[in-house]
Write a structure and sequence with these properties.
The chain is an alpha/beta fold and 430 residues long. It has 13 helices and 18 strands. A seven-stranded mixed β-sheet has the order 2-16-15-4-14-13-8, with helices on both faces. Strands 3-1-5-6-7 form a five-stranded antiparallel β-sheet, with helices on one face. The protein has a four-stranded antiparallel β-sheet with strand order 9-10-11-12, covered by helices on one side. Strand 13 (278-284), helix 9 and strand 14 (313-318) form a beta-alpha-beta unit. The N and C termini lie far apart (60 Å).
Length: 430
């Protein structure tokens, strides 16, 4: 399992202090960061994205260790990709322990350590920025220049995902669907029962935020699984990987020193390097511009895609108390599913009775509340709270695996209720 340690970087000061004073934050299958603006949620998420990419590039031979071990290159090129090059201080400490490689930045030095994993799952890595609405707000965003690098990469993936859509794709919001006119390169939202059809660029801000997130996540998650070769609804590689693979293939074919048989072997080896095993989906504010019920639906979709492959991970930053509550529902649902599957004979008899009476089984009733495909085990979830005042990070406690409601987000709701009670007191005195 990967883990990260951060100290004195951007708004993060002391950083994380866990059990037994451990400074390491474990990166679970579902990892969530909550906190106020400027507390460092995106800093942590972006560093995880950076190190995951470096680990993958080194493992695949796209980078060499000696080329990476330059502090300025780590700061300006790799951290600069997410505009974090100015977050470093003289006493910055950052460490990341991955499956294949470990990295450390300490006292201005950057080092790479090669690990010896039994098996390293090569991931697809997608960073979904909060500015994703921008790619929906205009009809042809790919023609725009000078976009932030992470947004430009996401835009490339959105364009690619749209091209891979055949017919319509059902959206998890309001019984709508997504359609893409490949000839004119225009995206549309179609309403329930075909009562309306509008351009994505003319839709509500909620759709402009959720659609790119959903379409890109769907395309990348589904592309990992084995599928019928005639199915072109998903892409095998990301846009960046496709371009790099083409370049490497051309080099092999143009190499006159290689025989036909050696070229075949080289192509096979190259193909193995680009085999993808899992998907790391890093999402800023999935709740952006969405009504609470829509937040629930988009979260269910993200969890479902995350459950497709064992090694996949979903990493989120959020300001939404609803998202944490809905995540708790998915955890409780997994607990109940385990009881249903591994229950006693009385449960089996009751399900048979329900079927005989044309009533729903326990499993069907559970699925009506939260889709079984979107359930998550509490052992695979961790929520971190970041404090913008003192720059610390702590783990949100849980009760029987359910995240505690004593967190910053719910405290803000309670504070609003307390202020309203204060107004009522003044009114009563008047």
């Amino acid at each position: 399992m990967s883990k990260i340690r951060i100290k004195n970087f951007g708004p993060i000061k002391e950083g994380y202090v866990g059990e037994n004073n451990s400074p390491w934050m474990e990166i679970e299958k579902v990892t969530v960061f909550i906190g106020n603006q400027g507390s460092g949620k995106s800093c942590v998420a972006k560093l995880i994205s950076t190190f995951s990419w470096l680990e993958k590039a080194l493992r695949k031979g796209q980078l060499r260790e000696k080329d990476v071990e330059f502090p300025n290159r780590f700061m300006n090129r790799y951290c600069g990709y997410h505009n974090m090059q100015n977050y470093f201080r003289t006493n910055t400490e950052i460490s990341y322990n991955g499956e294949a490689f470990s990295f450390s930045y300490f006292e201005g030095n950057f080092s790479v350590i090669r690990n010896k994993p039994e098996y390293y799952k090569i991931p697809k890595i997608m960073y979904v920025p909060a500015e994703r609405n921008f790619v929906s707000a205009v009809d042809k965003p790919e023609k725009l220049k000078y976009l932030p690098k992470s947004l430009a990469t996401f835009l490339d993936e959105f364009v690619n995902a749209q091209e891979n859509v055949n017919g319509g794709v059902e959206l998890p919001i309001n019984n709508t669907s997504f359609e893409y006119d490949k000839l004119n390169k225009i995206a549309h939202i179609r309403g329930n029962k075909d009562d309306y059809r509008i351009r994505l660029s003319q839709s509500s801000s909620g759709f402009q935020s959720a659609v790119p997130l959903f379409i890109v996540t769907r395309n990348l998650a589904l592309s990992i699984n084995e599928r019928d070769e005639s199915d072109s609804s998903t892409s095998e590689l990301s846009v960046e990987e496709e371009n790099r693979l083409r370049i490497e293939i051309r080099k092999i074919y143009k190499n006159d020193k290689l025989s036909a048989s050696l070229k075949k072997v080289a192509i096979e080896e190259l193909s193995a390097k680009y085999t993808i095993d899992c998907f790391i989906n890093i999402v800023e504010e999935p709740e952006q511009n969405l009504f609470p019920t829509s937040q629930h639906q988009i979260l269910n979709s993200l969890l479902e895609f995350n459950n497709i492959n064992e090694g996949s991970k979903l990493i989120m930053t959020t300001h939404s108390p609803y998202l944490i509550n809905f995540l708790s529902i998915a955890i409780q649902g997994e607990f109940l599913l385990d009881k249903i599957i591994n229950g006693n004979s009385n449960k089996v008899a009751m399900d048979k009775y329900r079927l005989g009476k044309n009533e729903k089984t326990f499993k069907e009733r559970l699925n009506d509340i939260v889709p079984i495909k979107s359930l998550v085990n509490y052992k695979q979830v961790v929520i971190y709270e970041l404090d913008e005042k003192n720059g610390t990070i702590k783990t949100l406690p849980s009760s029987y695996g359910i995240p505690s409601d004593k967190n910053y987000l719910n405290q803000s709701l309670r504070h609003g209720n307390e202020m309203f009670d204060g107004l009522l007191e003044i009114e009563q005195e008047l």
